[in-house]
Amino acid sequence: xxxxxxxxxxxxxxxxxxxxxxxxxxxxxxxxxxxxxxxxxxxxxxxxxxxxxxxxxxxxxxxxxxxxxxxxxxxxxxxxxxxxxxxxxxxxxxxxxxxxxxxxxxxxxxxxxxxxxxxxxxxxxxxxxxx
Length: 131
Known about the structure:
Elements: E1 8-12, H1 19-33, E2 39-43, H2 52-66, E3 71-75, H3 79-82, H4 85-91, E4 95-97, H5 100-109, H6 120-130
Parallel strand pairs: 1-2, 2-3, 3-4
């Protein structure tokens, strides 16, 4: 039996997310999510604060991956972003890891599963309310 491992791609989230940065980030991300079951790690080490535009970008990435039965993991959130009240809601949607390496490795440990009750419609509502 041959087992092939799908690639995990890592993308750095910008420090400050603006509307134009979000569009550019999502445009660049498209080639990676156009595969079946994309596996993405978002390197959040540059994030200065977890604000609405940043949350919207993270939710948009998750939505694009989930449309193709994929998953997104967050990695390397700085301390100031980890204590943000907005992160509490994201914890239910994302697996969050201390390092990029841990997040990448998590895809190889076990198959990802959606949190109970999570669906694309709920994600779209969350993304719209974050905008």
